[in-house]
């Protein structure tokens, strides 16, 4: 039993600034949950409240069914991996990993067994006698994870553990973390500002913004069915396009009018859903991969229109085309073999099966 | 010839680089001259002390000739000092007082600095500033009220009185150095220790003290130097030779009315300066590292 329950948790600082504004979240046993959001959204504060490093102003946090509001960090049975590793510089890798167990007076043989086991999982056995300063960034992060694993805690907490690593190592360590979780299956709460990390690691992603939870769900659900404009824009890279538009009712079918006189029909399956928006200004949301060169015309709900590319970015496996529509930047993903030139109009196909309409005032996806 | 031509054709930037290097040469020369000048000024007294300590009383009194040279070198001043049991008592008193003061200082300032740097409590910032401000009050202002206090404790004319009083000089500065050093230790280290199960005292003993060792050594050297070299307080509080430390012992015992045993005074002073010199020679790197951390992060 190591589920984590966050109930109406508030964190307010002196002067009344609320970093976390009454959030609710249930994290199941063995689950890998990623808190993601921009700087200052309250994700790290939430993690630190779970760890007991920040006091909770209101609400309660329970770990394994026990409310831990007033329990100090050492008695919460959690382990945390920090962004800057926080390894004890004067101790060897072995001593770093054994420190928590030594303080808890584990027998020496048991400590040795656990440290060696964790070192094997993380492939750091040859490093056990080294001091942290003799390790590379990736090795240090492994040791920090090892320190967490040996404790066999109820919950792992990761606070942006990959932010200090270079891009290549970050991808490698991401896989390592996922592998470790699949091996040890400990409930994990992971904080990051990188949505790619969130998508690749999480069983469920929690998107936070301004101290509230915008949406919780599996990565694919967040990607395909965002509930707010913030989530739609935050998840996915390049971000979803938001184009000012107007929904119009015409001869029994809805259509969306975009700038430059472009009109696209609303798919029949969505007509009922968008009916209330008829006659209103909205934001037309579509991901770059659903705005491509003309292809798949045999499918339903593909709209073709002409646009003029302004910037072309060849990425190798794809080419990104940027253009501006009534002040809104629009990004399209086209096949790298498709000829595209800045300033030369070309045909684009929008897959309307993946379109979103957003209420510009409430920010809610309709 | 062709080389000269090539140099003339070089773009401006290379000429600028040349002038930079000449500027650097000037800077080096200025630095060397200043350093040599400073070294002469600071080394002149100990060299003169050493020269005088090798002279007989007659040679010291003789005003003929160059006083920087020794005509008949002798070690009689050193043998006289080292065979004088009173001098050994002074030495023992200085050693005893210094060890006690360093111990007391380091315990108090380490604990105080840890609390002020790490345990967030109401007024901790003001208290940290206050601790440093007390260091700025000169000892010559403090010795009169301290005389009353030491007298009240019945410790006048006792080396233990000095053990009580010296920490008023050493604790504020050492605490300040250590606050700076502790503050430079990443906060995540104590958070990791807290999560690993450490209590505050375990965190201090197992994490902070080992990590902050350069700062602790710097503070220890400072406390050692202040305590070993103190002059005003022992002059004010101790009058019995049995309780005197070296600094005033040498002066009080080797100056009789207007008769100065210069050779022995210089030999005694040099011997007294030896322990700090040895300590600095071995721990200089730690001292600089510790002070730098205090200066930049404090």
Automatic annotation (TrEMBL), chain A:
Assigned GO CC terms: ATP-binding cassette (ABC) transporter complex, substrate-binding subunit-containing
Listed GO biological process terms: carbohydrate transport
GO molecular function: ABC-type transporter activity; ATP binding; ATP hydrolysis activity
Name of a matching Pfam family: OB_MalK
Keywords in alphabetical order: ATP-binding, Nucleotide-binding, Transport
Superkingdom of the source species: Bacteria
Record has Transport as a keyword: yes
Ranges for domain ABC transporter: 4-235
Family to which this protein belongs: Belongs to the ABC transporter superfamily.
Protein name per UniProt: Sn-glycerol-3-phosphate ABC transporter ATP-binding protein UgpC
Species annotation: Falsiroseomonas algicola
Lineage: Bacteria, Pseudomonadati, Pseudomonadota, Alphaproteobacteria, Acetobacterales
Recorded name of the encoding gene: ugpC
From TrEMBL, chain B:
Protein localization: Cell membrane
Organism: Falsiroseomonas algicola
Domain annotation ABC transmembrane type-1: ranges: 91-283
Top-level taxonomy: Bacteria, Pseudomonadati, Pseudomonadota, Alphaproteobacteria, Acetobacterales
Similarity section: Belongs to the binding-protein-dependent transport system permease family.
Main location: membrane
GO process terms (BP): transmembrane transport
Name this polypeptide is given: Carbohydrate ABC transporter permease
Membrane-spanning parts: 26-48, 97-117, 126-147, 159-183, 204-231, 261-283
Gene Ontology, cellular component aspect: plasma membrane
Membrane topology reported for the UniProt record: Multi-pass membrane protein
InterPro entries: BP-dep_ABC_trans_perm, MetI-like, MetI-like_sf
């Amino acid at each position: 039993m190591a589920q984590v329950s966050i109930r109406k948790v508030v964190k307010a600082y002196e002067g009344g600034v609320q970093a976390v504004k009454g959030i609710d979240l249930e994290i199941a046993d063995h689950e890998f949950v990623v808190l993601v959001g921009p700087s200052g959204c309250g994700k790290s504060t939430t993690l630190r409240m779970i760890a007991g490093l920040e006091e909770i102003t209101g609400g309660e946090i329970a770990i394994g069914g026990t409310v831990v509001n007033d329990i100090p960090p050492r008695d919460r049975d959690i382990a945390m991996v920090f962004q800057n590793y926080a390894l004890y510089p004067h101790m060897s890798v072995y001593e770093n990993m054994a420190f928590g167990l030594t303080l808890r007076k584990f027998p020496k043989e048991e400590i040795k067994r656990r440290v060696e086991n964790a070192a094997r999982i993380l492939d750091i056995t040859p490093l056990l006698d080294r001091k942290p300063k003799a390790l590379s960034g990736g090795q240090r992060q492994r040791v920090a994870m090892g320190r967490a694993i040996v404790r066999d805690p109820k919950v792992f907490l990761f606070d942006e553990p990959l932010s200090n690593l270079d891009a290549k190592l970050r991808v490698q360590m991401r896989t390592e973390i996922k592998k470790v979780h699949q091996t040890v299956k400990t409930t994990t709460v992971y904080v990051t500002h990188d949505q790619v990390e969130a998508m690749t690691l999480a069983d469920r992603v929690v998107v936070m913004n301004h101290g509230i939870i915008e949406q919780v769900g599996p990565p694919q659900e967040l990607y395909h069915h965002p509930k707010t404009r913030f989530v739609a824009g935050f998840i996915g890279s390049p971000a979803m396009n938001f184009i000012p538009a107007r929904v119009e009712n015409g001869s029994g079918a809805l259509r969306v009018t975009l700038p430059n006189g472009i009109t696209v029909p609303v798919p029949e399956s969505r007509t009922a859903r968008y009916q209330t928006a008829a006659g209103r200004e909205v934001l037309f949301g579509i991901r770059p991969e659903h705005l491509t060169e003309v292809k798949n015309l045999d499918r339903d709900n593909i709209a073709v229109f002409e646009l003029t590319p302004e910037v072309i970015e060849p990425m190798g496996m794809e080419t990104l085309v940027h253009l501006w529509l009534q002040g809104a930047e629009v990004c399209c993903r086209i096949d790298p073999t498709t000829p595209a030139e800045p300033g030369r109009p070309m045909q684009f196909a929008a897959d309307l099966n993946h379109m979103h309409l957003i209420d510009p005032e409430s920010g809610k996806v309709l | 010839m062709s080389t000269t031509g090539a140099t003339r054709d070089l773009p401006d930037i290379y000429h600028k680089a040349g002038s930079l290097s000449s500027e650097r040469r000037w800077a080096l020369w200025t630095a060397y001259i200043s350093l040599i000048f400073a070294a002469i000024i600071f080394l002149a007294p100990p060299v003169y002390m050493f020269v005088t300590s090798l002279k007989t009383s007659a040679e010291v009194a003789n005003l003929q000739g160059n006083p920087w040279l020794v005509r008949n070198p002798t070690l009689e001043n050193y043998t006289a000092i080292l065979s004088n049991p009173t001098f050994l008592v002074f030495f023992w008193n200085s050693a005893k007082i210094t060890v006690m003061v360093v111990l007391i200082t380091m315990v108090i300032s380490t604990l105080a600095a840890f609390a002020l740097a790490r345990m967030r409590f109401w007024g901790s910032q003001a208290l940290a500033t206050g601790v440093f401000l007390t260091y700025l009050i000169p000892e010559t202002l403090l010795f009169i009220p301290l005389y009353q206090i030491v007298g009240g404790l019945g410790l006048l004319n006792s080396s233990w009185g000095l053990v009580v009083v010296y920490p008023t000089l050493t604790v504020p500065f050492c605490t300040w150095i250590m606050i700076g050093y502790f503050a430079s230790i990443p906060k995540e280290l104590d958070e990791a220790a807290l999560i690993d199960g450490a209590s505050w005292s375990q965190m201090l003993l197992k994490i902070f003290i080992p990590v902050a060792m350069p700062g602790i050594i710097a503070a220890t050297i400072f406390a050692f130097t202040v305590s070993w070299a103190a002059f005003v307080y022992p002059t004010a509080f101790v009058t019995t030779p049995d309780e005197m430390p070296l600094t005033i012992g040498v002066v009080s015992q080797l100056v009789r009315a207007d008769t100065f045993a210069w050779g022995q005074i210089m030999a005694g002073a040099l011997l007294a300066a030896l322990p700090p010199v040895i300590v600095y020679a071995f721990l200089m790197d730690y001292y600089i590292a510790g002070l730098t951390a205090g200066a930049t992060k404090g």
